[in-house]
Amino acid sequence: MAILNDTTETTDLGLPLVERKTPADVGLETVLTESNIPYRSRLYLGACIEMKLLFRLALPAILVYLVNSGMNISARIFAGHLGSQELAAASIGNSCFSLVYGLMLGMGSAVETLCGQAYGAHRYDMLGVYLQRATIVLALVGLPMTILYTFSYPILLLLGEPKMVSCMGSLYIAGLIPQIFAYAVNFTAQKFLQAQSVVVPSAYISTAALLLQISLTWITVYVMGLGLMGIAYVLTISWWVIVVAQTVYITNSPRFRHTWTGLSWRSVQGLWSFFKLSAGSAVMICLEMWYSQILVLLAGLLRDPALSLDSLSICMSISALSFMVSVGFNAAVSVRTSNELGAGNAKAALFSTWTATSVSFVISVAEALAMIASRDHISYIFTADADVAKAVSDLCPFLAVTIILNGIQPVLSGVAVGCGWQTYVAYVNVGCYYIVGIPIGCILGFTFDFQAKGIWTGMIGGTLMQTLILLYVTYRTDWDKEVEKARKRLDMWDDKKKSLQK
């Protein structure tokens, strides 16, 4: 059986035909459809091909998300060494800014769908147009966010924050305003690169930016004495360093000579249609990010709020670290699914979906077992308080279930992004999280007095329902129809092709 056809035929872009797909890509679809190979052998060969592609995408993506989170964590650490009020101000600033982070990350997922499917279909020139169009839309969305953060001081006072913390927090937030537009460029560029399976350079750039941020923050705080504002300025500069580095790489690397052909007037066409497409992605991501934050807010209303907040914060920190692994597989399966659908490979898209879900599930089970084994000791990484350690130990079974569910649900969300189901998943999130999960958690936590365990049980119930729905939808998906939908979507967004049809 020949995995690749030996041909020198060229495409309309001047590329040799064998360069249109990597050997692994061609081999996966060919292996899965080769009737002369026994079924088990097909599964084994397909798994070998897919695992190599999957981990090549997932591992650098995990590093990128860990480093991006580390930039905010390092800012809080430096603020904490300045004083408790500075730490509170930085925590409020970063928490408030997570609204914009989720909004921009979610809207950038639309680029992942379109660019991934266009790349799989070899419509390379459209990737640069989608990149520019998305950047314009996200930048326009960022404008009202600047107004929100400009008036952060009265907003924080309205939310009941102390006057001094509100004042310091508003100054810190003001220093982060330029970061809004760095997000707008960064997430679109990141998805543009991921759609082409280019993830390692982003990992190098993000790591270098983190090291630069730590060094510059130390200088501004301890040498220049700029305090909290210095921390905010350096954090903003560090994000713009990532943006500039990615932009220079995309516009100058010969690797993207067919996907980036320079600025185009086509990018300003169809902005409203692109906004509507990306809005579903934004809602999907934001609803997921806010869900766990609401758990912490509800804990502050319990009988012993200090103990509940401390124990839940530790559990959420552990959950967030394990979640980064799943987010890496989320990015990887989104790229793999969209690429295969764009290329018309229905069986390969199906195989990629279940391979990524299975691998992430196995890893999450291992993480949960390791956490259960260390349940009596793990909290001492964060605190020396014995009461908090006991509370964390009691919550560990709930944390273990959450970790396992987080090993499946984000991967299925990545499949949704690759297929373009964002709006549907947004409706599922609203129903499962906010109509089922949170109300049940409040009833169990407050009415039946199960406290933190009751709230968490309700939240787990919402996540479990969402996971089961996504599993069922994915299982029932007709992948041949998804290939046709991807083709129609690309035709609709391909401005050049529409003009020819006219």
From TrEMBL:
UniProt-recorded Gene Ontology molecular function terms: antiporter activity; xenobiotic transmembrane transporter activity
Domain of life: Eukaryota
CDD domains (UniProt xref): MATE_eukaryotic (cd13132)
Residues that span the membrane, as ranges: 87-110, 130-159, 171-189, 201-224, 231-251, 271-291, 312-333, 353-374, 395-418, 424-448, 455-475
GO biological process, one term: xenobiotic detoxification by transmembrane export across the plasma membrane
InterPro entries documented for this protein: MATE_euk, MATE_fam
Family note: Belongs to the multi antimicrobial extrusion (MATE) (TC 2.A.66.1) family.
Membrane topology field: Multi-pass membrane protein
Organism: Microthlaspi erraticum
Protein location: Membrane
Record flagged with keyword Transmembrane: yes
Protein known as: Protein DETOXIFICATION
Keywords, comma-separated and alphabetical: Membrane, Transmembrane, Transmembrane helix, Transport
A cellular component term, taken from the record's GO annotations: membrane
